[in-house]
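Worked problem 6 (solution included).
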Amino acid sequence: MKNTQISSLRHKGCFGILSLLAALALATQAFALDATDLSGPWKFQFDPDDHGLSQGWHLADHDDSDWELLEVPGDWGEGIEGVGWYRRTLELTPEMASHGRVALHFVSVDDEASVYIDGELVAENYIWDLPFHVDLSSYLVPHASRALSLAVRVYDHGGEGGILGPVTIRSLDDLGDLERTEWSERAARTPLEHVGSNVMYSVFVRNFTPEGTFEGLRKRLPELKGLGVDVLWLLPIHEIGEVERKGTVGSPYAIRDYYSINPDLGTEEDFRRLVDEVHARDMRIIIDLVLNHTSPDSVLVHERPELFLTDEDGNPRTNVAEWWDIVSLDWNNPDVADMCLEFMEYWVREFNIDGFRADVASMMPTPFWERARRSLEQIKPGRIFMLAESHEADLHVEAFDLTYAWDIYKSSIAVIQGDRPATSLRDAVLRQERMLPRGAATILFVENHDEERAINTYGGPSGAKLAAVLVTTLPGVPLLYTGTEVGSSEPRDIFEKIPVKFEEDIHGMRPHWTGLLALRAMHKPLQIGSIRFLDVEPARSALAYERAAHGKRVLVVLNFATEESEVTLDHDMMPTETLTLAPHGWAIFAE
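Solution. The predicted structure is:
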């Protein structure tokens, strides 16, 4: 995928209908309970310049008398992208207070949502079809009514936008069932127990070494193996198109020829030599797979133009406005699937690679991925490894080993920056566990080629180091990107050649990552264990969880505050009931 963050944008066509209908069905069934349905007209205003926050649109006393009314649930219209704001009053009743804990529950907000109550940011959600909630318990007044101001800022990347699903106030006890999907009771094709011991590394060959070649990467394989890496994922290695090229050397995701190797990276023989040595070191290697689009001057555009989406003049077009350097394949044409499968089989058979990372995987139909997995398994039984750039639950059932933990990544940023309480990260982990098939695994990361460098995202080296602790101790497979292990602050611009300065590690990130990955390799609970979150004080800035597997346990205690903190926790592995943790500090105890 290219530089725009589109992973939370699902292909909003027929492939998204099942998951959304399932969520709506769950919510509709729950209306028979003591739930307050907030469907109906809400105040609404577009914010094309995104100045609503600076102008106080989230505040309780903001004057919205001239705003229009828009029905919720519902969308604000096809082809209108950007930011829109919703406002309404929440009426909390004595009956709600008598139930103890209640929540404001959203089924689907497209694409991203920031929720404010009486001007305070109380929740953020980044995935359009992922249900989320706000705990309203602290706002309840015994035996009395209370009115709150609710504002929702919605950012839409494309397609439909708005509050698409029902919004209700309900008992917090209901949420476990409401946030499950139709896939929750299915078993994942590849459970965490089978992949949890892996560590992945995303290689941008162009910028991994000064020469930017396969040979340069091959020479550094001992270093990656020593770091603890098991699986290498190479960003696209094919020839890049010339027409509409972005930057000086172009995006590797604007592919000219699926069957080619970019000569800047080396020859076919260089690539074969790299693959052979990866395997000799008991590692696996996968390459990026870009099946949504090609460059405008691709071989396919010239030879098979009927495979592409076209504009009113019959010319191939993009299906995402910001991706103006590509043209999109038409997945309604069955010949596209046949062509793509031939290409995948070619690379596995001819070069002995171990699988693929599928770019914007949810923009292709799931049955295609299931068919492709079956075909590839016939070529390399039991050796295929598939990562989907997606969060969709159905992809885990038959097609992919891993998807992206986008919600956990975004929540970790908000918590480490101090914008959200630590409980929101806990909720993101549990929400993912509920929505995915049983045992499903995801990749955990602090940065990648689409996202800003961790040193900047997490507010400096201490925040980036704490994020690394999360990635190596939460359930999932850690993913490092080119330069992560040295805390690189080099621009991660995929349109340029900017080699990472691996010799510079001014914040001591390499020993930090090496130590964490070694600790993880020593303890099975950190690789494949279940997770149990524990009560801890202070709840807003501290988090504690236990990982358990094979009769062993690991306890992780984290301080998200930027100052020293006394963290209190009742657990038999704690040396004392209270720990003094440094700013952005942590403690890990293992049996």
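Discussion: Residues 1-33 have pLDDT under 50 and may be disordered.
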